[in-house]
């Protein structure tokens, strides 16, 4: 049924970069046979899952939205993908994304943009617009994304789906093509909170192949999400509204739905408090130093030798340096080049303390702001994005406008804390979905599921 749905709507939505229907049907048939034989099956038995193309999939193409990886077929599964398969999920395809996950609209994909199923002239968010659009368009019930500065939560918000960025280290990054290693997290996208919890339960947990993956016993997120149903768990809960993330400049419909959600929480017995995280004012600036610096280093591996594309220089002797330069010139898009240049500049000798080092200090201040705020509140809330889905083409030639759109989501990545986005209605001015973002303290992902589950 999902393959039929994909065939029917992909021409308009373009959520996928690669669909292998035959493979998916063969996997599903194998699961059916095991079911008929009475064998035990995993918690996602037979359920189709769409996977962001940032995650490697064995024997299936993986491009990270870039020309430089066109045609590359990894010989291994990312840990999160391997865990989905072990849970008997069916990988239905690889979803579109901004090149190397740099962007907020999926327009920086080398393979053309994804369209928002709510309004095909609008962006589906980014960088994981493909995963969110696939779920919103009923092409898949579940998807995986990666969130470095909001790439799971913002697409979820603008497509009316639910997206979760786990605590940093909560899900293995092994096999996830790195953007900024200290910020990247893998997480779920689905159409309701319980479904995200179900996927998170399958992919979470320590992985010896990722040295930053946390070795701890996580509670069942599905139990947490179910436990809060019907509003139980909201009574007496202290909900902190972050003053710096509730600005007059936000779109009116976004603010209206957010205010309504706060009123609803108060009605359900939650205690609403206002909190301040003053250093959030510097979050975008710090993020756009940390991210390009780490990205420029991570992307050094795309050199024409090890993966994908190789180009020889024209009009000069084909030495190694010329080959690398020609390959990177042809293989990377403009946004990727922009960030590599920013990053290498920020890291260059003599500038480290001025830029990267300073940004890391700001990051510590933001972390401390959150720690202090969580002494006053159990969870913190804000709109997930300052606007609803903007029009395709609206910001693509204005990098700064695109970066500023991330103001609400990047603080969680800088602090390493978990955050969830869930739908809270439509903005009246454009009829497009609005998301509520909830932050929890580090390791308290279960608290977010209980809260979001109760609100759903
Ligand atoms: N929009 C952000 C950026 O361009 C988020 C990226 C991400 O989370 N992968 O960096």
TrEMBL record:
Domain Amidase: residue ranges: 1-448
Cellular component terms per the entry's GO annotation: glutamyl-tRNA(Gln) amidotransferase complex
GO molecular function: ATP binding; glutaminyl-tRNA synthase (glutamine-hydrolyzing) activity; transferase activity
Superkingdom: Bacteria
Coiled coil: none
Key word Lipid metabolism present: no
InterPro entries xrefs: Amidase (IPR000120), Amidase_CS (IPR020556), Amidase_dom (IPR023631), AS_sf (IPR036928), GatA (IPR004412)
Stored Pfam families: Amidase (PF01425)
Active-site positions on this chain: 52 (charge relay system), 127 (charge relay system), 151 (acyl-ester intermediate)
GO BP terms, alphabetized: translation
Substrates-to-products reaction catalysed: L-glutamyl-tRNA(Gln) + L-glutamine + ATP + H2O = L-glutaminyl-tRNA(Gln) + L-glutamate + ADP + phosphate + H(+)
The UniProt record lists the keyword Transferase: yes
EC number from the UniProt entry: 6.3.5.7
Similarity section: Belongs to the amidase family. GatA subfamily.
Record note on quaternary structure: Heterotrimer of A, B and C subunits.
Protein name: Glutamyl-tRNA(Gln) amidotransferase subunit A
Species this protein is from: Pseudoclavibacter caeni
Gene name of this polypeptide: gatA
């Amino acid at each position: 049924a999902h393959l039929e749905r994909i065939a029917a709507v992909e021409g308009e939505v373009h959520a996928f970069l690669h669909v292998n229907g035959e493979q998916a049907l063969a996997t599903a048939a194998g699961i059916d046979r095991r079911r008929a034989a009475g064998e035990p099956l995993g918690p996602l038995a037979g359920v189709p899952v769409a996977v962001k193309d940032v995650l490697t999939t064995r024997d299936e193409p993986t491009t990270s939205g870039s020309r430089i990886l066109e045609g590359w077929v990894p010989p291994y599964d990312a840990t999160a993908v391997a865990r989905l398969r072990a849970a008997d999920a069916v990988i239905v395809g690889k979803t579109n994304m901004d090149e190397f996950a740099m962007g907020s609209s999926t327009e920086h994909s080398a393979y053309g943009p994804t369209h928002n199923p709510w309004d095909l002239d609008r962006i589906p968010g980014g960088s994981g617009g493909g995963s969110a659009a696939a779920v919103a368009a009923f092409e898949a019930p579940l998807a995986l994304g990666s969130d470095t500065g909001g790439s799971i939560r913002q697409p979820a918000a603008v497509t009316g789906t639910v997206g979760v960025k786990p605590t940093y280290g909560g899900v293995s990054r092994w096999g996830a093509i790195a953007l900024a290693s200290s910020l990247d997290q893998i997480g779920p996208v689905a159409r309701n909170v319980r479904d995200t919890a179900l996927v998170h339960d399958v992919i979470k947990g320590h992985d010896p192949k990722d040295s930053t993956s946390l070795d701890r016993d996580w509670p069942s997120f599905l139990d947490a999400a179910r436990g809060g149903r019907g509003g139980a768990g909201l009574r007496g809960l202290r909900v902190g509204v972050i003053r710096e993330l509730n600005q007059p400049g936000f779109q009116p419909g976004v603010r209206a739905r957010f205010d309504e959600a706060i009123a609803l929480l108060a009605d359900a017995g939650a205690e609403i408090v206002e909190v301040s995280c003053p250093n959030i004012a510097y979050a975008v600036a710090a993020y756009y130093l940390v991210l390009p610096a780490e990205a420029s280093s991570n992307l050094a591996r795309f050199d024409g030798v090890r993966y994908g594309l190789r180009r020889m220089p024209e009009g000069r002797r084909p030495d190694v340096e010329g080959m690398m330069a020609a390959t990177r010139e042809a293989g990377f898009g403009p946004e990727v080049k922009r960030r590599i240049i920013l990053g290498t500049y920020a890291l260059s000798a003599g500038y480290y303390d001025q830029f990267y080092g300073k940004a890391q200090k700001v990051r510590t201040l933001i972390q401390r702001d959150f720690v202090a705020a969580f002494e006053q509140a159990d969870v913190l809330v804000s709109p997930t994005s300052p606007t609803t889905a903007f029009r395709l083409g609206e910001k693509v030639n204005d990098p700064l406008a695109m970066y500023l759109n991330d103001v609400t989501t990047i603080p969680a990545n800088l602090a390493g804390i978990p955050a969830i986005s869930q739908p809270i209605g439509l903005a009246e001015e454009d009829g497009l979905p609005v998301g509520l973002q909830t932050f929890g303290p580090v390791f308290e992902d279960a608290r977010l599921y209980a809260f979001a589950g109760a609100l759903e």
